[in-house]
Amino acid sequence: MSTAELHTLTGAYALHALPEGEQLAFERHLGACEACAQEVRELSATAARLGLAVSATAPPALRERVLREITTVRQEPPPHGRSTRATASPGRAGRWPVYALAACLAVSAALGGVAVQQYQAVQDARQETRQAQRHDAQVSRVLAAPDARTATAAMEGGAQGTVVVSRSVNRAVFAASGLRRPSDGQVYQLWFDDGGTMRSAGLVDTPDTDGTVLMDGPVDRASGMGITLEPAGGSPRPTTPPLGLMGFPAA
């Protein structure tokens, strides 16, 4: 199998739809091709998110039809210095580049009992994946900064809050444990303390309220932070007494 053909197998590999021989060849190729490795990571995350988000019982004949049709479908190679024009392989029909990802996801639907209803769902899931990756990268950058400093304090109701601040990165990360789930119509909101003036730093909207949050906006001259319980959507200024206050540690 040529290198050009290997570049087209990312979607099928991400969904475990390759024959053993092609799978082994592609895995060797992945070690030397970062573009394909990145595309496999994105497609795998996309398929997993779609499987959780969109569920429906697949028609009995869908699995057989999809497995038959994917032998004639190949996606275009990644556009990293390679031609994006489709070429036919011996014994295979021409590729359908526009529908390649949709066809691969249909394999996942057939095997797992999940049917993908709209192409837009693919775009939304991939965007969500990229946003999550950017968030994780920014959090890691703060936590790994040489000047990162940590402060921890008890909060109302037995919860505990921890903040990590990096002045060089100019960002802060907040983590909470033991926060009770807010009532309907309420949300936890974070604040920077700019010399006694509270500046919104985003909402704690993780499903279980026990998570790591990259605080919105730069730290700048803030000397500390607080957390309050606000109406859904947040408030421009705190409307309730703080559940917790923490001063930022000195650099």
From TrEMBL:
Residues 9-37 form the Putative zinc-finger domain. It holds the Pfam family RskA_C. It comes from the Bacteria. Residues 71-92, 228-251 are annotated as: Disordered. Signal peptide: none annotated. It is a single-pass membrane protein. This is Regulator of SigK. It comes from Streptomyces halstedii.
